[in-house]
Amino acid sequence: MCKGPITKGTPAHPLAVSHSLTFMTAPSKTVDAINQALDILENALEPLFAKSLHDTIENQDPLEQAKFCAMVPYIVSQLITSKPNSSF
Questions:
Q1: What 3 state SS string does 5-46 have?
Q2: How does pLDDT run across 11-58, given as a tens digit for each residue?
Q3: How many domains does the chain have?
């Protein structure tokens, strides 16, 4: 049976849900881990959503607005697909 990349003594990180689960994990533990990771992510992103995108970029020049708008999808993609930093 395939094993995940987990080694003995590896610290569990709440955002490392996919990296910390094995094939034999109980579904309820998996759901709890995902919920915990989403709570942490929501708390981290809350200040970013305090202002609308328009309010954030309205006083910037057009080039800076374009850079910011091009960067947003990349950041979202990285949040979804990147391996969490263990020192987070």
A1: CCCCCCCCCCCCHHHHCCCCCCHHHHHHHHHHHHHHHHHHHH
A2: 445 455 555 555 556 788 888 888 998 899 888 888 778 888 888 888
A3: 1
